Amino acid sequence: MSQAAPALTVDGADRCRDCLRTRRQKDIPVLVFPDGDHQVEPTNEETAAKLTASGLI
Fold it and tell me: Mind listing the pLDDT tens digit for each residue in 1-55?
């Protein structure tokens, strides 16, 4: 039996720079392709190359 990881909650003021930075770190762009492959924080060139190789563009 596996347990789910505890959720991370960030509280703070909208003007707090530390809080804003921490919230941004939770948003990581991930692309998942139909073949099951994925890219984490890809550059435009990496994304274009994968889409071309997959025949999607």
Answer: 567 767 777 677 777 888 778 777 777 888 999 899 999 999 999 999 999 998 9
User: What is the distance between the alpha carbons of residues 20 and 18, in angstroms, rounded to a whole number?
Assistant: 5
Distance CA 5, CA 31 (A): 22
- Polymer length of the chain: 57
Quote the pLDDT of residue 52: 94
What is the distance between the alpha carbons of residues 23 and 7, in angstroms, rounded to a whole number?
13
Determine the Cα–Cα distance for residues 28 and 45; give it in Å rounded to an integer: 18
Task: Provide the residue ranges of all domains of the chain, joining segments of one domain with +.
Answer: 9-54
Structure-block tokens of residue 9: 């909650």
